[in-house]
Specification:
By secondary structure, the chain is an alpha/beta fold. Helices cover about 30% and strands about 25% of the residues. Strands 5-4-17-16-18-19-20-21 form an eight-stranded mixed β-sheet, with helices on both faces.
């Protein structure tokens, strides 16, 4: 992706006029639209966040003494000190009190077509009963409750039930194996694990309860297992979701704004995963701002993001959308089952207006969709996260799928960020894969290894100079690891680890800094090599890694997945080597180009380059709990071992 302006989408005057950004600017006397608001919010974050939380409707039982207190340093920042609140009150109960109890809060559906709707009043009442059921199991403020559920009503309700009584939700990816679950349960010290009997994906039934029971052997703190769709078994301390939902309702508990709400683990490359902690005050402020201003969500919207309750996007979309008084769509299953057209039917049947997914999904769809690819006319905003775009896939998503009428809101952040650091905006022009810059209220920049800002077009590390509400309050049980990971290299500033460049007012993400390839002192972002390989019509996908070299430090290795109907013989890999060399220069000539049937990915589409690097070097691969296609590993090792 080039770090230059190549605008492929422009907002219409009507889009700008109707946007939440324009309304905020007018309400607070900001002339100049989004760019002026962005500059002011970065220069004075406290000014922005004080006004944003009021605009978002966050309920203060007691108002904050100030917006934030960073007197102890950036790593120890407290947001909204002195305030008392509860996320469930702001997201659900507030709408009921305001007479919007009959509005839909959640629509849920499954591969077999079954599903339903929860209104705001129903969601509030259901979460109150489940909260009461958790209290009956001995859960009190600060106790951790783990969620090992597929997307649906139970995961949605459990989030607010935990918030209601001050319990800490521990999301677990529904595709994890028992060992990965046990590690996270043990790290969190979870008291309750909530799972389901099974889930269905691509028409196949996968048992979740057996996996959860297997995990309990390595999680001694868990006292109760709750099973949705299961049977009561007092002998094994098993409770059904039905029984949990039949308890006496628990009232909303008023909590200090910095009370933990969410403990969500990031993927660990080595050692145990890191547990990021988010709060009742900071998390809704951050994700509410992103959903309201960047995704432009309004009360009549239906928001659908292809995700799992174990990833950050599920609580982000759930909390942000309900703060806005809009409706979340949760879908259990594969969006391409029984055929690729399923996604289009789903968007039309559910009247989806805001749709988000990963770039990987677009690359999959663009190669498979027959005929007309345009999304239903109800869709007005497209969004994406998870990995950098290829230009071809972005243009397909914008032009073919979005019909050139929808902005593509690209967001980039992470679990420990509590949302996003960079985002697009619906009121400014967009280039393929570009961002409008830092999210509102975030003071971020790009720095090289010396701490200087590189010139336009030159990549450096994404760095945040001041705290933001969504910043994790720390890593669970690992304060030293928190400061070492994010603050040690650049004291007083957050080192995010993303490789980013700027050009013409836009920002471009090129991957992770630890994925940067250094060849004889020359730095190369993997995306540049990958784009060159993908440009060949015989290639469907590609990944690039650096492999140790005795002279150059590292050598460039490229892995290529053949396009449908193609194979990659030695003559083809030679052609790809030449293509990369021509595109990047002789210094970046690949040492090897290797054909593989698939790339190692997480369920949300991210390529796990360290798996490729480990296969190339014969070293341990580390934590594989997020690897969705474990079968890829042996094929990659076999391909690497073949004679070059």
């Amino acid at each position: 992706m080039n770090s230059v302006n190549d605008y492929a989408w422009y907002p219409s005057p009507e889009t700008i006029e109707r946007s939440n950004i324009t309304a905020f600017c007018r309400a607070h006397g900001v002339d100049g639209g989004y760019r002026a608001l962005q500059a002011r919010s970065a220069a004075d974050p406290a000014w922005f966040w004080e006004r944003a939380v009021a605009d978002l409707g966050i309920v203060w039982h007691e108002p904050p003494e100030r917006v934030c207190d960073d007197s102890g340093g950036m790593a120890a920042t407290r947001w909204f000190p002195g305030a008392r609140t509860n996320l469930a009150d702001s997201c659900l109960e507030r709408h009921v009190r305001q007479g919007r109890g009959t509005a839909p809060a959640l629509r849920f559906t499954r591969e077999d077509g079954t599903g339903g709707t929860l209104t705001y009043a129903e969601a509030a009442a259901h979460s109150a009963r489940v909260a009461g059921g958790l209290r009956g199991l001995g859960v009190t403020e600060g106790d951790r409750v783990a969620c090992h559920l597929p997307p649906g009503a139970e995961a949605f309700v459990l989030l607010f039930a935990c918030a209601r009584i001050g319990a800490v939700l521990v999301p677990l990816f529904s595709g994890y194996g028992a060992e990965a679950i046990a590690v996270r349960l043990a790290d969190a010290g979870a008291k309750v694990l909530v799972t389901a009997r099974a889930t269905t994906r691509h028409g196949r039934r996968y048992g979740l309860e057996p996996v959860a029971r297997g995990a309990l052997r390595g999680a001694p703190t868990v006292r109760h297992l709750v099973v949705a769709g299961g049977e009561e078994d007092p002998g094994t301390a098993t409770t059904t979701w039905r029984a949990l939902s039949a308890a006496e309702p628990a009232p909303v508990r008023s909590l200090p704004a910095d009370t933990p709400f969410l403990l969500l683990h990031t993927s660990g490359t080595t050692g145990r995963p890191k547990g990021a902690v988010h709060t009742h005050g900071g998390f809704p402020a951050q994700v509410g701002s992103e959903v309201r201003y960047h995704l432009d969500v309004r009360p009549d919207d239906v928001v659908f993001w292809v995700t799992d309750p174990g990833w950050i996007m599920f609580p982000l979309v759930t909390v942000g959308t309900t703060l806005a008084g809009a409706c979340v769509l949760a879908y259990e299953g594969a969006v391409d089952h029984p055929g690729v057209e399923r996604l289009w039917h789903l968007l039309a049947e559910q009247d989806v207006t805001v749709f988000g997914s990963s770039p990987s999904l677009s690359r999959m769809l663009m190669d498979r969709v027959p005929g007309e690819a345009a999304a239903p006319g109800s869709v007005r905003v497209l969004a994406s996260t998870g990995e950098p775009w290829t230009e071809e896939a972005w243009r397909w998503y914008s032009a073919e799928f979005g019909g050139k009428r929808c902005p593509v809101i690209n967001i980039c952040g992470g679990t420990e960020v509590g949302g996003s650091l960079l985002a697009s905006a619906p009121t400014v022009p967009q280039s393929p894969g570009g961002f409008a810059g830092p999210c509102l209220g975030i003071d971020a920049t790009v720095e090289d290894e010396t701490g200087a800002e590189p010139p336009e077009g030159t990549a450096g590390e994404l760095v945040v100079r001041r705290p933001w509400p969504g910043m994790t309050r720390g890593l669970w049980g690992a304060r030293d690891r928190f400061t070492e990971t994010y603050f040690a290299r650049r004291p007083g500033r957050w080192s995010h680890g993303d490789l980013v460049s700027r050009g013409g007012g836009e920002w471009f993400v090129h991957g992770r800094l630890d994925d940067v390839i250094k060849i004889a002192g020359k730095r190369l972002g993997p995306a540049e090599a990958e784009d060159a390989v993908r440009a060949d019509p015989a290639v469907a996908d590609a990944a690039a890694v650096g492999v140790p070299h005795p002279v150059k430090g590292e050598a460039l290795w490229c892995f290529a997945v053949p396009a449908p109907g193609h194979t990659l013989a030695p003559a083809d890999t030679d052609r790809l080597t030449t293509r990369v060399t021509d595109a990047l220069g002789p210094a970046f000539r690949p040492a090897r180009v290797i054909a593989v049937p698939e790339l190692p990915r997480t369920r949300n589409g991210k390529v796990i380059r360290r798996v490729l690097r480990a296969a190339a070097t014969g070293t341990p691969v580390g934590d594989l709990s997020t690897l969705a296609n474990a079968s890829s590993l042996e094929a990659i090792r076999s391909a690497v071992g073949a004679t070059p």
